[in-house]
Amino acid sequence: MDAVQVYPATLVLIALNVIASVVAFNNPEFFDRYSFWIKPIRQGEEWHRFVTSAFLHVNGLHLFINMYVLYMFGQILEAYVGSGGFLILYAASLLGGNVWEYADKRNQPGYRSVGASGATSGVITGFCLFYPFATLYLFFAIPIWAIVFGAGFIIVSFVLSQRDQTMVAHGAHLGGALTGLVIAMLLRPEAWRQMIDQVASRIG
Fold first, then answer.
1. DSSP letters spanning the chain
2. Distance between CA atoms of 199 and 185, rounded to whole angstroms?
3. Which of 4, 127, 177, 184 has its CA 20 to 30 A from that of 110?
């Protein structure tokens, strides 16, 4: 009950992702109708796919990874900026990721993707801005500062997004991460200065 009161938006988003994905696992027509697919977006102006695709996942592992990230970072971020602010950041990152991917892949009519990765990428970079020296564990084993992780995530996403053929929507990761960072700074304008001050104090 306490969790529902403290970070309700995070839990509702997880529930929506799980429900929509489980339905799609068992209904290929539902999956095709709501996935991010360039051809029907361009030819049929099916703009709803920019949003609906972010609640679908390819399989259980894909769903678990995104929901684990959302739960771990979302609850902290929601407690910090409030449920309304968190929903704004999540929604903006979701759209930012898919808009970036659309701009990058618009000439590939067969291109498809699904997943909450764009949105969760924004959640991660927002967390990294607010808690730059929190310890994260790369590959669940290597301790790393959040600010280093966030910068590395953006750089790697950009590099990988330049590949023509990839099974992962790195462009959505990049667009979501950058959007989340911008929205986080708008929600807490003092956060950028605080991060710089923390970096300066660490450097000495």
1. -HHHHH-HHHHHHHHHHHHHHHHHHT-HHHHHHHSEEHHHHHHH--TTHHHHGGG--SSHHHHHHHHHHHHHHHHHHHHHHHHHHHHHHHHHHHHHHHHHHHHHHTT-TT-EE--SHHHHHHHHHHHHHHSTT-EEEETTTEEEEHHHHHHHHHHHHHHHHT-SS-SS-HHHHHHHHHHHHHHHHHH-THHHHHHHHHHHHHH-
2. 17
3. 177
Contact 77, 130 (CB under 8 A): yes
Span 15-74, pLDDT tens digits: 999 999 999 999 999 999 999 999 999 998 899 999 999 999 999 999 999 999 999 999
Domains of the chain: residue spans and CATH:
2-203 (1.20.1540.10)
Residue 149 CB neighbours (<10 A): 21
pLDDT tens by residue, 89-131:
999 999 999 999 999 888 899 899 999 999 999 999 999 999 9
Q: Given this model, what pLDDT does residue 80 score?
A: 93
Cα distances (Å, whole numbers) of residue 174 to 11, 91, 96, 183:
24, 15, 9, 14
